[in-house]
Each structure stands twice: as structure tokens, then as C-alpha cells.
Design goal:
Layout: E1 8-11, H1 17-28, E2 32-37, H2 41-52, E3 58-62, H3 68-82, E4 87-90, H4 106-128, E5 136-140, H5 154-174, E6 180-186, H6 210-221, E7 232-235
Parallel strand pairs: 1-2, 1-4, 2-3, 4-5, 5-6, 6-7
Helix pairs in contact: 1-2, 1-6, 3-4, 4-5
Length: 241
Amino acid sequence: MLNLEGKVAIVTGGSRGIGAATALKLASLGADVAITYGKSKDEAEAVSKRIAALGVKSMVINADAGKPETMQAMVDAVVERFGKLDILVNNAGVFEAVGTIGEINEEQFEHQLSVNIRSVFTTTQAAVKHLQAGARIINISSCLGQRATFPGVSSYNMTKFGVAGLTRSWAHDLALKNITVNAVLPGPIATDMMSPGADQLPPMKRAGTPEEVANVVAFLASNEASYVTGATVAVDGGLNA
């Protein structure tokens, strides 16, 4: 059975969807969990209360993933509060610049780049100085970080391909420190980010649940995944099979 007792975790974008499910799963396994939010304060505080009800410590921090400097300060605040950091889940992301190359504008492109790539880099860089042997970094990418499934999402695809690339590179960087780095690639998941009709794309002909993604994250965060690093794990109902 998975056990995260005594561990301290950060889940960015933990107020709803995959982030909230992940935070609650890690807490249910015994980890103290800090979550970040950008705009969803009430939802974040509700998740924090549910975490605390599981008998572990919780922390909520307002940190705008579009402003990487706030993510650095967030990591430092968590370590100051809990004394250490064992698990980082880079979950915060946006899916908004939808359009072909002739339709999206540079501002949309830059915002998606900042939230989906730059904040992952900045948060991880801030976290690494606190991580010890046995620590875990799990990046939430996307099935669209593996192939371009349909038109009009080039900027999102680019960021999620980038997250997968960072994951593989960081696995090499941190291997000798016994810090693992892996990515989870969700397919259509039943959250407010899912596009209409996307649930019919996978061979299983249904959307996944945030909890199904969280279960995989929890495994990668555990000691049972000690020899897994540099992996990109699809949770997509066979979409990219």
C-alpha cells in the first residue's frame, strides 16, 4: 500500500480538477500538502479544509503561475512553514490560445508559454535547492504533449511537448541525487478544461476522472516508483496508443 507519511508536497493549481484530486490523494496517503491557486480562492480554501480533515497539515498560497517570480516565493514559503519539501507536482496550466497559426496572437502565445512552461521551470528550479535524495518531481503534461491530435492547438501542444522534454532532461540532471522526475500525460478528463466531445476521442469512449490521474501521480510520488524516472505516463484511455 502506498504510504506518504512524513512527506511534504506542493501541488500547483490545486484548487480544482486534477490538482485538487491530486492534493487530496497525497493527503489521504499521509502527506502534508500545500496547494496554490491563481483566482479560485474559495475553491482552494475548500480543498485545504478537506486536506486538514484527513489529519494532515495543509497550506494555501495565492501564486499566479503566469508570474514565475511568485512561484519562487511560494516554494520558499512552503519550506519555511514545513521545514522541507519532498514532492513537487507541477500541475498549474492553461488551455486557452485555440486557433491556427494565422489566428492566435503573440500575447496569447506568450501567456500560454509563461504559465505552462516558464512557471514549471521556475518552480522546479526554486524547489531543487530544497530537495533531498528520494524526492519526487511530477509534471502534469498532456496527451497533446505526445502528438498533435487535431488542428488549432499549436501553442498548447508546444508547451506540453516542452514539459515532456524538460522532464526527460531533468531526469538526467537529478539522477545521481536520487531525485526522480516524471510526467503524467492526461487525455480527456472530466474537468472544466475538457473540450466538448473530447470524451469520444479515446478508444474507451469516455473521459477519465481527475482521481484516475491522481492515482498515477501518487504512485510516482511514492517509494514504489523509486526506479522510475524520465517516464511520460499516459492516462488517456488509449488515445495515443
